[in-house]
Every structure is written in C-alpha cells, then in structure tokens.
Amino acid sequence: MADSRGHIGRLLSFAVNQNALDQELSATDKTQILQMLTRFGDLGSNYTYTGSSRAGFPGQEDKGSRQRDESLTPRQIEELISEPIWQARLDFFHGLNQQATMLQPVGGMDRIADAFKNQVGSDIQYESIVKEIRKIVNGVRVVYEKSSIMTSLEVDYCVCTIPAPVLKDIPNDFSSEFQQEISNFGYSSAAKLAFQSKRFWEKDHNIYGGISWTDQDITQIWYPSFGFGKSKGILVGAYIWGTTAANSFANQTPQQRITAAMTQGSILHSEYTSEVTHGISVSWLKVPYQMGAYGYSTPNVLLNPDDNIFFAGEHLSILQGWQEGAILSAYNAIDGIVKKDIG
C-alpha cells in the first residue's frame, strides 16, 4: 500500500509539473495538489519516491527489529501493476462493509441471534419446515411440518426471510414477477474453514489481527482481532468466495478441506501444519435451508410487498452477507406493514 501510494503520488506530481493538467488546474490548484501528493505518497525532494517508513522496517515482520534507520526496498511500479491479486484487492478495505473500526459481540456474532431468542424465544417454532405460502383474503396462510405433523397458520401478514434458493422450491402463489426474481436471485457459494492454534502469528511474526491474501484456493487467512497475547486463538484458515474454488471446496469431504487448507497455509507460514489443529469448515452451499452464503443479485420487486407478503433478509439490503443488512431489511418490512395497516 505504501509503495502504491508513493508511485501514484510520484506519477501524478510528474504530470502536474509537466503542465499536463493545466486545463484542469489553476496555478494555485497545482501548488496545493503538489503539497497534497507529497503527503499522500510520502514523497522526497523533487517529488521522488524511494520508499517509506509506512511500509515498516527490515526484520520487523519476523523478529520485531528495533532498526528504524533503514526502510524496506520499495517495490517497483511494474511489479505492483502486474500482480493480479494486488490489482484486485487494493480497494478491499475501502468498502462500506470493511471499515477499519468495526466492533463484534463478546463471544461471537451468534450472540446477537441468542439475544433475540432470549426476547422472543417462546414465539419461535423450532424444527418446523415451511411447506406452502399462500395468499388468502386479507392475509396469508403458511403451512409447515413439525414432527411429521402438518399445521396451517393463517395470519394478517407474513414477513418471509427464507433464502431465495430455498424459497423458489416452496409451493406458493406469489405474483409472477416475484417468482421470477426469486428463481433468478444469485447466491454466493462462499465457504470458511477455521483452526485452533497457538498464536505463532503474534509471537513469531508480530501479526495482530488482519488478513493475509493468497492466490491459492483458500483466498484469505484471518488472524483474530481479540485475545492478544493469549496462548491459543481461532484462525480463519480459509475464506473462499470465488465460484470455482468455492464449488470445489463444497464438494470435498471435511478432512479433504482441512488437508488442503493446511497445505496451502504452509506456503504463507512454514510452521502452519505443526501448529494448527481442530479444523472445522462450512460450505453454505451445502447447508439445507440456506443453499448459499449470501445473496449478490440486485433486488427489485422483492423490495415491495406481494399483497400481504413482505420479504426481508440480508440479500435484500445494501449490506448483503451481513447481519446488519438483515436487520435493516427487517426494519424496511416492518415499516411497510405499518404503512399498509394504517392505510
């Protein structure tokens, strides 16, 4: 990142000083943008870039070197622009859903679901499989099966949060445009794998949280952002969302997934195979009532009610794949019901 900013700043400064942008910039603009680019790219005299302390120091990545008078040799721009993974991931952390300051519940993200259960648990029907969703006069009929017993529930409104790959196969009488969008809604085949491990990444490499990228199938290794300094931690050994790699992962046995992730992870960390244990994986493509990790199509008609049936879920939000997106979508459905109910 430091070298990318340095070369971008250097090249743009060169263009400004060669008067290539005179039609866009006034004399005052040129002076100010050169000052900005100097800070942006950590440029030296004459707007050159020869490396930056922002990239760290030799030995720091392995031994926490105390050297502070020698910078890492900068990567040349030809190397940066020819590297596919660097081109594809340079903007990753700028996304709305990848902001640097993000909080998580103590104990894991499922604590949020547990908190909801504690409030409305008595109203939840567990192990109940929806078999039909039907429109009736001024309401909705939902037919579900529990313990081999079929039950019909008639209500004023239905908020349907069933993922589209599952919903499309449930008998219903949705309007044709809703059925079409549900049938065509795309879902990611993303998958994850995690290991328990001694925190070798902290002790041996000074890595505290963050992500390592690789062009192998595992795609990413995520280091825990909590529990710093403890003896063990949970390491995400693979987060795969590329369709080909994710589908291949889905079709492997659990042990094949673990073996592949250990082999690929050892390319990044030589001690990997001797440190990581207790591998566990999930391919959401194989989860029966999910059949995909998250929606990625752009919703249209599903943002509206089909008579008294409202639709909600992460796939219908601006934050697809995130719990916050699911909650925002639920708010939208609730607002729609209130507006419809009060006329």
From TrEMBL:
SUPFAM superfamilies noted in UniProt: FAD-linked reductases, C-terminal domain, FAD/NAD(P)-binding domain
Domain Amine oxidase: 97-333
Membrane-spanning ranges: none
Biological process according to GO: amino acid catabolic process
Signal peptide range in chain numbering: none
Compositionally biased residues, Basic and acidic residues: 60-72
Region (Disordered) residue spans: 51-72
Xref: Pfam families: Amino_oxidase
GO molecular function: L-amino-acid oxidase activity
PANTHER family reported for this sequence: AMINE OXIDASE (PTHR10742:SF342), FLAVIN MONOAMINE OXIDASE (PTHR10742)
Protein name per its UniProtKB record: Amine oxidase domain-containing protein
Source organism phylogeny: unclassified sequences, metagenomes, ecological metagenomes
